[in-house]
């Protein structure tokens, strides 16, 4: 089961605008050294929509090298809103991938019966377990706790990255009775602490590029019932996440990582534009 903090790596670009493969490996090793339990390649944070097929393959290869070296899981984002194309992308995943983070079909709004049919069909074909990426403010599609429980019954559906923008009634319902072996991972950085308090087993969090150790400690604190430490850390980390998400993700995170010498440029690809200096300075100044 995926547990702990998994970092959805940003994709660094060099001064010429190309994917900086060395920087991916350096950053991957850095967050794993700081306590992350695994990496996620090609998430929203990795600007997957702005990468061509060849670049996507090189990002996966770089992350796979680091994960193999450290013997930790690599999850790869697979986004699509048609079942046939998404199944083909899953079948094409290279070796070295432990799980696929698959977005609820976006824009089309197929309804919950369609969501069930989509994931059950993909689960039958996928060479790796699926983690459902539920993010309705991006996809436009609701998914209830009942639907997630039904999908959890499939042996090739391993969990959900739950990112509904808050701790809603379905989160409380799902976490009140989590199906055996089904990993509920928080996907909204600012509310990771309450999600862990309710029983989430970890998170896929862009904010954890920074203060990775503290995010990992937050998981441990909730899981070992060290409530005083968990609350305190949770409050501080929520403040950091709010600053990192003050402008579209991952622009601020890239600005701070660049300011700390961890990536060669803070550049993002259009339609994202670089974060304002003010947002970067503010986020970089937050000390836990
Ligand atoms: O790429 C991801 O995975 C994440 N993306 C979210 C987003 O950009 O909305 C944020 C989350 O921290 C992880």
Distance between the termini: 30 Å
What count of structural domains? Answer: 1
Kindly report the spatial arrangement of strands forming the biggest sheet. 1-2-3-4-5-6-7-8
- CATH architecture descriptor name: Alpha-Beta Barrel
Give the class-level CATH name: Alpha Beta
Strand percentage lies at: 5-15%
**Which sequence of SSEs, written as H and E, runs from N to C?**
EHEHEHEHEHHEHEHEHHHH
Structural classification: alpha/beta
How many β-strand runs? 8
Summed up, the helix count is: 12
> Measured on Cα atoms, how large is the radius of gyration?
18 Å
CATH topology: TIM Barrel
CATH homologous superfamily identity: Aldolase class I
Share in helix: 40-55%
Small molecules in complex: ligand LZUJQKHR
Shape: globular
Labels describing this entry:
288 residues, alpha/beta, TIM Barrel, 45% helix, binds the ligand O=C(O)C1=N[C@H](C(=O)O)C[C@H](O)C1
Summarize the structure.
By secondary structure, the protein is an alpha/beta fold. It has one domain (4-233): Aldolase class I (TIM Barrel), CATH 3.20.20.70. The chain is 45% helix and 13% strand.
């Amino acid at each position: 089961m995926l547990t702990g903090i998994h970092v959805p790596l940003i994709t660094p670009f060099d001064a010429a605008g190309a994917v900086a493969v060395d920087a991916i490996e350096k950053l991957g090793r850095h967050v794993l050294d700081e306590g992350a339990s695994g990496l996620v390649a090609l998430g929203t944070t990795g600007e997957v929509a702005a990468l061509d097929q060849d670049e996507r393959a090189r990002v996966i290869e770089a992350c796979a090298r680091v994960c193999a070296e450290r013997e930790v899981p690599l999850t790869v984002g697979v986004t699509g809103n048609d079942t046939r194309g998404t199944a083909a992308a899953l079948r094409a995943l290279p070796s070295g991938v432990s799980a696929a983070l698959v977005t609820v079909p976006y824009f089309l709004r197929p309804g919950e019966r369609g969501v069930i049919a989509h994931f059950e069909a993909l689960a039958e074909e996928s060479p790796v377990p699926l983690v459902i990426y539920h993010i309705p403010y991006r996809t436009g599609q609701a998914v209830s706790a009942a639907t997630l429980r039904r999908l959890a019954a499939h042996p090739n559906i391993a969990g959900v990255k739950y990112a509904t923008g808050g701790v809603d009634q379905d989160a409380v319902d799902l976490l009140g009775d989590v199906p055996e072996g089904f990993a509920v991972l928080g996907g909204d950085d600012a509310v990771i602490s309450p999600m862990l308090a309710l029983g989430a087993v970890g998170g896929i969090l862009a904010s954890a590029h920074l203060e990775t150790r503290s995010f990992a400690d937050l998981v441990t604190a909730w899981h070992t019932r060290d409530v005083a430490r968990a609350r305190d850390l949770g409050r501080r980390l929520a403040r950091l996440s709010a600053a990192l998400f003050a402008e579209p993700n991952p622009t601020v995170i890239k600005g701070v990582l660049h300011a700390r010498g961890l990536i060669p440029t803070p550049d993002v690809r259009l339609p994202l534009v670089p974060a304002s200096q003010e947002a970067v300075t503010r986020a970089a100044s937050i000390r836990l």
